[in-house]
Amino acid sequence: MRNRDYFKGKKITIVGLARSGLACAGLLHDSGAMVCVTDNKDDQLTRTNAEALKNKDIKIELGRHSREFVEDRDLIVISPGVPDAAVPIVWAKQARIPVLSEIEVASVLCPATIIAITGTNGKTTVTTLIGKVLEAHGKKVFVCGNIGNPFAAEVAKMNANDFVSLEVSSFQLEHIVNFKPKISVILNLSRNHLDRYADMQEYAAAKKRIFMNQDQDDHLVLNADDPAIKDLAQETKAKVAYFSQSSGLNPNQAAVMVLSLILGLDKNLVLRVFKEFNGVQHRLESVAEIHQVKFINDSKATTVDAAIWALKNTPGPVILIAGGREKGNDYSIILDLLKNKVKEAILIGEAKEKIKSAFKGYVAVEEALTLQDAVKKAFGKAQPGDCVLLSPMCKSFDMFTDYEERGRVFKKAVEDLVQ
Q1: How many domains in the chain?
Q2: Helices 44-52 and 19-30, interaxial angle, to 10°?
Q3: Are residues 247 and 135 located together in one domain of the fold?
Q4: Which segments of the chain have a pLDDT < 50?
Q5: Within its chain, how far is the Cα of 113 from the centroid?
Q6: ∠ CA 85-88-91, rounded to 5°
Q7: C-alpha span between 267 and 42 (Å, rounded)
Q8: 75 to 1, 10, 115, 313: CA distances (angstroms)
Q9: What is the structure's pLDDT at 192?
Q10: Does the residue 6 lie in any domain?
Q11: What pLDDT does 315 receive?
């Protein structure tokens, strides 16, 4: 690591004890910081993560937030899911205590070349593909961030010649200060997270923070086909390169190809990686085929635009399983595609009534209490040649820990059908 003593002796409280909070607590403790952790949840996940820290000198509170965990601190570090309205953040701002994100902390210690990817859709696929391409060229690369392991869990393993392919969300970018990727990629920008942001302008402003510290020695890769993205070249000091969907390359591949050219990688080898790439888990993941009915796991699709992509790339008539926690989605943009592609929609979760109202007159709708129940109902309605597609268009937190757990539950439900 670089800057090994940067956090040594500092009093730091971490708000949130999910994956990134756990990783950050361990990293900062091992860097010599005096660490406390506070989480207003007291459930199986937070208890398990607290147990993982029991051998470290870290003070932990679960099920509440106390002022003593915030007052007289040098720094507050927050997990991506913690909003600015959370009580510890309000207390910190009142006390003029700096609030940082986990990726800011990890980047301070990171000796490797950081490639950061953001956008509304496609982040996980592009982040994974970049990792595959670099590995094919013999590079050591860490694929992390909002995908797989948190950045803070990997940074201690990195060296100066390594690369980080880092998926970053708008939430993670809200509290960066000096975070400075060598290459930033903004894939697209569409309506999302309007349960957290006042409007699209505020959401876009969070995304644009990815390049706020870049200079003329850095690179920014933008989507030439997205009007909300292509003009950002006027707002950065970095060298700008554009990608565009072209014959033979989808938008995600086009973005990776442009980035590969910036790094001086072999184009033919990059194309071979594209050909061999089977996709990522929970993103248009083929699960099984039962009695000529295909089951596809697209749990990563937490936006309407992502579900549109999934429907356009799913063969045959579709029985759609959707729903979850509402995030300010505009479901009207999918209605024409529903009418032409979807036989029936089976809805779950908190948003099912809103989705049902939006879908009325366009597609038949049925509700299910659980995802397992939805899978059974979908299979009962399916005919040979149909696809049962889980593409929720919503967050998972009403019923699951995250989209990955939701995807695993879907796959287990399909497996149970096979048995």
Answers
A1: 3
A2: 20
A3: yes
A4: none
A5: 20
A6: 90
A7: 50
A8: 20, 8, 26, 45
A9: 58
A10: no
A11: 86
pLDDT in tens, 197-212: 667 788 889 899 999 9
Read off the CATH number of the domain in which 194 is found: 3.40.1190.10
| DSSP class of 213 | T
pLDDT recorded at residue 224: 95
Cα 138 from Cα 245, distance rounded (Å): 27
Mind listing the pLDDT tens digit for each residue in 76-134? Answer: 999 888 888 999 999 999 999 999 999 999 999 999 999 999 998 889 999 999 999 99
Q: Same domain for 81 and 121? A: no
For 418, the enclosing helix (H) or strand (E) is: helix 403-418
Q: 192 near 123, Cβ under 8 Å?
A: no
52 assigned to some structural domain: yes
Q: Largest alpha-carbon pair distance within the chain? A: 64
Rounded to the nearest 5 degrees, what angle is found at the Cα of 227, between the Cα atoms of 224 and 233?
60
Across-strand partners of 78? 15, 101
Give the Å distances, CA to CA, from 399 to 46, 163, 303, 388, 403. Answer: 16, 35, 17, 20, 10
At 184, give phi and psi (nearest 5°).
Answer: -110, 145
- Residues pairing with 240 in the sheet: 220
DSSP per-residue codes, 158-176: --TT-EEEEE--HHHHTT-
> What pLDDT, in 10s, does the model give residues 3-35?
989 999 999 999 999 999 999 999 999 999 999
Structure tokens at 304: 């309407």
Residue with tokens 């990293």: 27
Distance CA 274, CA 134 (A): 12
359 closest CA partner among 389, 397, 323: 323
Q: Is 196 domain-assigned?
A: yes
| Contacts by residues 244-252 (CB-CB < 8 Å, ≥ 24 positions apart) | 249/274, 251/122, 251/187, 251/188, 251/223, 251/225, 252/122, 252/125, 252/126, 252/129, 252/187
Q: Strand, helix or coil at 321?
A: strand
In the prediction, which pLDDT does 191 show? 62
Kind plus residue range of the DSSP H or E element containing 61 = strand 59-62
Considering the domain boundaries, does residue 1 fall inside one?
Answer: no
CA-angle at 404, arms to 186 and 390, nearest 5°: 90
